[in-house]
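Need tokens for this chain, all 320 residues.
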Amino acid sequence: MHYHIIAFVAGFLLDLLLGDPHAFPHPIRLIGNIISKGEKLFYNKQNKLHAGKYLVGWALGLTAALATGVLIGAYLVTPYLGILVETIMTYQILATKCLKDESMKVYHALDNDGLEAGRTAVSMIVGRDTDCLDEIGVTKAAVETIAENTSDGVIAPMLFLMLGGPILGFLYKAVNTMDSMVGYKNDKYLEFGRCAAKLDDVCNFVPSRVSAFLMIAASFLLGKTFDGKGAYRIFKRDRFNHASPNSAQTEAVCAGALSIQLAGNASYFGKIHEKPYIGDAIRAIELQDIKRANQLLYATAWICFILCLGILCVIQFSCF
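Here are the structure tokens for all 320 residues:
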């Protein structure tokens, strides 16, 4: 357990320090390749629902086998190598700095180079059509991405890392990656991606709500710029204003904390999808809200890290 605690702390700090250098080989890309290979193997089966289940089994089985083999192999060589490998795996599962860096590219593009540059930058982190967005739309899309991925990219992985180390952490990332690749409600993936999408909903059900409450706490701690009471009020009212049972949980908190309105209709693949709004338009969205959303992200991540570390230390000391 104390090896796990050391790797957990070191991996979290490495993520904050290094982020995700594009030149550095990343295991999530390997997971993406496994999923793509599985899609080619199973998609042409007649029953698309069953084919999607085969894909889930394939991706999770290979991910678990590779993560387990690497981690146990390293610890069998020497505990020091094991700690090093577990630290690197932990660092690669978390995405705090990466999320901040990618969203701040949108901020700097809008601020320095104008709307077209902002549209291009935000298209790298959202799935919606961006060529029709104005500056407010680009800013809102970036803020929504930060809010939603505070759960998916940071808090949920951290919780799974605490519970089961990098093996469970990479299994969660495999589920999350499958959902982002095949979990679409279109003609191609409606049935094939259903198992992956439902599994992602199940895996994120508790973490998304934990993330929301941690973000509410962060809203109270960050000062007068953030409205903690508003965060809780909008969370209670609008947390289900999304097709997914989980996505609006942290979006609602962020909207309430910043006193802005998020969500609403959006265009995907040239088609307008009608969506309810989240939050109240107490004030207009502005470029600085990207920075404020990132402040919420970091404060929420630190609160979760401290709580997880405390739980791990209690478990460690209770073993003696």
